[in-house]
Amino acid sequence: MLVAFVESFKYVGHLIPVACLRIFLGGYFLKHALASFQGDYLMKAYLAEDIRNHLPQSTAPEWFRWFLEYVVIPNWQFFAVGLTAIQAFIGVSYIIGYLVRPAALLGVILSAGLIGAIGASQNNLQATTFMLVLHLILGWIGAGRCLGFDYFFYKRHRGIWW
Questions:
Q1: Is 161 contained in some domain?
Q2: Whole-number pLDDT of residue 109
Q3: How many domains does the chain have?
Q4: Would 143 be classed as within a structural domain?
Q5: Backbone torsion region of residue 10, taken as left when φ is above 0, otherwise alpha when ψ lies between -120 and 50, otherwise beta
Q6: pLDDT by residue (tens digit) across 25-77?
C-alpha cells in the first residue's frame, strides 16, 4: 500500500493541486464536524430553528418544503447527528484520499439539500453552489488517486468508486 502511495506521485502527479484542494476541503469539513460535535449543535434545536426561519422564503419545490417541515423539524436531533456524521465522513475521506467518490456524492447531496433549504434568495447561495461544484469536480476527477489511498485500489480493482 505504501508503494502504491508513492507511485501515485509518478502516475497522477498532475493532480497534486487538486489533491491539495481536496485535503483543504477535507480539513474544512472535519473542522465543522468537530465544532458541531463539541458545541451544543447536537443538544439544542439550531437546525430546526434555521429551517423554520428560512422556510417561508425558500423557493424549493413543495414536496421538499413539506419534507423539511413535517419530517426534518420534528426529528431535528436525528438529522443533526446525521449531518455531523456526514461532514465528519467527508472530511476524513478527503484528507486521507480514501473513498473520495462516495464522499463527493454525499457532499453533492448535502449541498443540494442546503440549497433547497435556504432558497435562492439568500446571500450564501453562491458559496453553497461553489461547494456543490467542488464536490462534483473532486468526484468526477477521482481526486483520491493522488496523495491518497484510492490509487492503491484503483490500480488493483478498477471500478466506479475509485
A1: no
A2: 92
A3: 1
A4: yes
A5: alpha
A6: 999 999 999 999 898 888 888 888 888 888 887 777 888 889 989 998 899 89
Q: Which residue, chain included where needed, has cell 502516475?
A: 11
Structural element, H or E, at residue 106: helix 100-118
Residue numbers of the domain that contains 151? 2-156
Three-state secondary structure call for residue 34 = helix
pLDDT of residue 34: 94
State pTM to two decimals.
0.81
- State the average pLDDT for the chain: 82
Angle, alpha carbons 37-134-30 (nearest 5°): 20
Closest CA relative to residue 16, chosen from 144, 109, 123: 144
Question: Within a domain: residue 148?
Answer: yes
Query: Is residue 151 included in any domain, yes or no?
Result: yes
